[in-house]
Specification:
The protein is mainly alpha-helical. It is built from nine helices and five strands, in the order H-H-H-H-H-H-H-E-E-E-H-H-E-E.
Length: 263
C-alpha cells in the first residue's frame, strides 16, 4: 500500500470533524468553533493538505508570517489563528508542542474606546424602527453585547423585577442586567405577537427550538414551550444543519445594520 504525506479528502474532513467534536466537549461558542475550523482548513490547505503531524515548527511560523506580511491581518486575527493551531495540536492531535514558546501572541495596539453621547445615540435610534429599533434600544439600555441580545429567550425577560438575564455570555458566564422602563410596553407587545406566531407554528406541526447543552434530554418537551423561544426569531423556519430539524432560529447578527450616525 502506497504511503503518502497528504490527507485524502476523507481524512481532511475527519480532522475538521475531530476538531469540532473536541471544541464542543469543551463548550466553546459556535462562533469560536467556526473560526477555528476555518483557520485549520486554511492552515492545512496552505501546505497542500499535508498531514498535520508532518508539518514542522518552521512551517507553522511561515504560515503565521504569511498572515502578517502578505495578508496584513490585524493582531487579533493573527492571535486567533495561533489559538486555533495550538488547539489542534494540543487537544485534537495530542502532540507535544516543543515549539510552543516560540509562538508569541501579536501585540494589540492600544486604542481609545468610542463612546456615543446621548444625542448621538438618539440620532442612531431614530434611523431604526420595529424589531431593529427594539434590539438596538435593548443593546444601549441594558448594556448587552450584540450576540447576547440576539440569543435572548422569552424567559430571559423579567418584567416584574425590571431585569434581563444573560445566559452563557462572554466566557460562558451568566449575568443579570437592567430592563429599561421605556422598553416594557414595546417588549410586551412584541412578545404578544411572538405568542401568536408560536401558536401557528405548533398548529402546523413545528414550534420546537434548539435547547442548550442537555436540557432537551432532561426536559423532553421544553423545546416546544413558549418561554424557551427566542425573543428575536427568524421570520421563516429553517433546517438546522446539525439536527436536520425544522425550527425558528434566532436572527442573524447581520440583521441589525452597523449603528452609525447619519451623514
Amino acid at each position: 500500500m502506497i504511503q503518502t504525506d497528504r490527507l485524502t479528502p476523507h481524512e481532511f474532513e475527519s480532522v475538521l470533524l475531530k476538531l469540532r467534536n473536541c471544541i464542543r466537549v469543551k463548550h466553546y461558542s459556535i462562533r469560536t468553533e467556526e473560526a477555528y475550523v476555518q483557520w485549520i482548513s486554511q492552515f492545512l490547505k496552505f501546505y497542500y493538505n499535508r498531514k498535520p503531524e508532518l508539518i514542522l515548527e518552521s512551517d507553522i511560523n511561515r504560515f503565521l508570517t504569511n498572515l502578517t506580511v502578505s495578508r496584513h491581518v490585524a493582531a487579533s486575527t493573527q492571535n486567533q489563528a495561533i489559538s486555533a493551531i495550538l488547539f489542534l495540536y494540543r487537544e485534537v492531535l495530542d502532540k507535544p508542542l516543543d515549539w510552543f514558546d516560540l509562538l508569541h501572541n501579536a501585540k494589540k495596539p492600544k486604542r481609545l474606546p468610542l463612546v456615543f453621547t446621548r444625542n448621538e445615540v438618539q440620532a442612531i435610534l431614530q434611523q431604526l424602527e420595529g424589531t431593529k429599533w427594539l434590539m438596538a434600544t435593548l443593546l444601549y439600555g441594558s448594556g448587552l453585547r450584540l450576540m447576547e441580545c440576539i440569543r435572548l429567550r422569552i424567559k430571559d425577560i423579567d418584567f416584574d423585577n425590571r431585569q434581563t438575564f444573560v445566559r452563557s455570555g462572554k466566557g460562558e458566564k451568566d449575568r443579570v442586567t437592567l430592563l429599561p422602563e421605556s422598553l416594557i410596553r414595546p417588549l410586551q407587545t412584541h412578545i404578544h405577537r411572538l405568542r401568536a406566531l408560536h401558536e401557528t407554528d405548533l398548529k402546523e406541526g413545528y414550534g420546537a427550538v434548539h435547547l442548550p447543552y442537555a436540557i432537551q434530554k432532561k426536559y423532553p418537551h421544553a423545546n416546544c414551550e413558549f418561554s424557551w423561544q427566542y425573543l428575536f426569531p427568524t421570520s421563516k423556519r429553517c433546517v438546522d444543519r446539525y439536527s436536520k430539524l425544522v425550527w425558528r432560529k434566532h436572527v442573524d447578527e447581520a440583521v441589525l445594520p452597523d449603528l452609525t450616525l447619519p451623514a
